Amino acid sequence: MLFKGLVPRAGILSLAVAAAAFGMIAPPAKAEEKALVIARDLDINALDPARVWCDTCQIYATSVYEQLVTLDKDNKLQPLLAASWTVNPEQTVFTFTLDPAAKFSDGSPVEAKDVKWSFERLKNIKGNAAFIADPISHIDTPDAQTVVITLTAANSEFLNQVAAGFLGVINSDVAAENGALADETAAEKDTSETWFLSHSVGSGPFVLANYEPNAELRLKRNENYWRAKPAVPEVIFRQVKDAVAQAQMLQSGEVDIAMQIDPETAKSLEGSDAVVERVPSYNFIYIALSPGAKATPIDMTPDVREAISIAIDRTALIDFTLGGDGRALAAPIPLGFPGGDGHQVPEYNPDKAKEILAAAGLEAGFTLQTIYPDLNVYGVDFNLMMQKIQQDLAKVGIALDLQPVPFANWREIANGDHIPLTAVFFAPDFFGSSQYLDVFGMQDGSVWAKRAGGDKDPTLINPRAGELKAAALAAATPDEAEKLWFEAAEEMIKNRIIIPMVSPDLILAYGPHVKGVRYSACCNLPLAEISN
User: Fold this and answer.
1) In this structure, what CATH number is given to the domain that contains residue 143?
2) Of the candidates 186, 217, 321, 470, which lies 20 to 30 Å from 171 by C-alpha distance?
3) What is the 3 state secondary structure string of 331-368?
């Protein structure tokens, strides 16, 4: 029985359909687009692609600017601004054909002249990343869609280098109007650095909305983006240095992603709605020895350096600092990079270390000045790590005089009188192994050949790593290059100057509604892939 005033269910549905058809009631509203809020330590030094040099900068430079090519999740090259490319057999000439659909955020086309100008500017600004552009001999632009880059020497890694954020392509016309220069005078006369802090002129999926130093970096969706537009309308980076504070903000829903959660803090997220993933990273932390340091009190021979290495219990160190969330590595090339895998990690053997030291006449023990950056990096507290290493070395008669200092002070000392034993970290600038030979190889002119005191002790110089690097960059196939990079890594292990400790796992922590978060070798965090 139907009571007066009631309508059957089918009738209700019919009325609703009719009402909607005649505009009597509104159709269901679309879900409101939600900004993506990220908590991280904003280590920003610049927002100019030719000057950026930080982890946050890497995310920014690959989200607001675009490169000729990029890397997928498997580190395979993919087209970006360049629709296609060719390489000559000698790997010295790279020809890129730009996608004709590519355009900057102001709607103007991305042209060959912009690529040439951007690459030459990176070289001539002479910032930290200029080393990537230094090998460029000249750039030709036969037409608006073609860029021909000629290098001074073979470089099988150049395409991977081109995927780095430092080689983002800038709208040259607009930048030049605002003080940016690309010629040989750029280092002295370019006046655009401040302008770039409040303006962006790229072709990426986002544009700069606002930047407040030590507070906030805000990006908004590029509505003129020439590819599929990103799913989120806005990305807000908030300055939050402390991992515990990041985790609390993630739990409360105040932020969607917490980027610098360490393993211990990650435990506090257990049982919450937050998603926590542990993934292998390409970052690593190492100790370094300087036989030529002014304060080194002994003859730090290769045997003595081996004794120091095997006197450190790496497994216990990883457990102590990271709760086991990291990998030991033998060579100063990341696991997963060409030549980085398959090396034998030194076995913890304090008894053998004592024997080596006794044979060197050092059975009475000695003290090493140990200056290192006072930092917490990739979840590793350097003070805790160095205290653990101090305990291990004390068991074989080596005392460490621990002196934590600000990073700027550390760099000055390391490059000045040098440091007998120190610790520091490294993250890749691009997906390729040549950068590790440039820094850690002991060939003349490398960073650590200088810091180890190679100018005072020529026996520290080992040109073999540099020779293998040149051969790998000229290799005809990736397999051939892989073998050469592996051999170069073995040479660096034999030098026993750089002693890797751990490659910490990266913790990805984000809200349950966030999708598409991943770690990238070229871009750190690809924002355009994330939905919220």
Assistant:
1) 3.40.190.10
2) 217
3) CCCCCCCCCCCCCCCCCCCHHHHHHHHHHCCCCCCEEE
- 58: amino acid identity, one letter: Q
Strands lying side by side in the sheet with 326-327:
326-327, 498-504, 284-289, 421-426, 366-373, 398-405
Q: Express each pLDDT in 399-442 by its tens digit.
A: 999 999 999 999 999 999 999 999 999 999 999 999 999 999 99
Pair type for strands 498-504 and 380-381: unpaired
Quick check: 169 and 201 in contact, CB under 8 A?
Answer: no
152 and 228 co-located in one domain: yes
The answer to whether position 15 is within a domain reads no
- β partners of residue 218: 210, 236
- Please indicate, yes or no, whether residues 405 and 448 belong to a single structural domain of this protein: yes
Take residue 106 and report the two structure tokens written for it. 């102001």
Tokens of 86: 């060719």
261 touches 247 (CB < 8 A)? yes
288, two tokens: 């370094």
Do 335 and 226 sit in the same domain of this protein? no
The helix/strand/coil state of 288 is strand
Does residue 249 belong to any structural domain of this protein? no
Are residues 477 and 521 located together in one domain of the fold? no
Residue 304 has pLDDT above 90, yes or no: yes
And the tokens for 54?
A: 């930080």
Query: Is the same domain home to 469 and 517?
Result: no
Asked whether residue 393 falls in the same domain as residue 299, the answer is yes
Whole-angstrom Cα distance, residue 236 to residue 241? 15
Same domain, 211 and 126: yes
Domain region containing 434: 284-504
Question: Do the beta carbons of residue 308 and residue 289 sit within 8 Å?
Answer: yes
Residues in contact with 147: Cβ distance below 8 Å, sequence separation at least 6, in sequence order: 68, 82, 95, 96, 98, 112, 115, 116, 139, 140, 141
173 and 129 together in one domain: yes
Domains contained in the chain, number: 2
* Digit-coded pLDDT (tens) for 77-117: 999 999 999 999 999 999 999 999 999 999 999 999 999 99
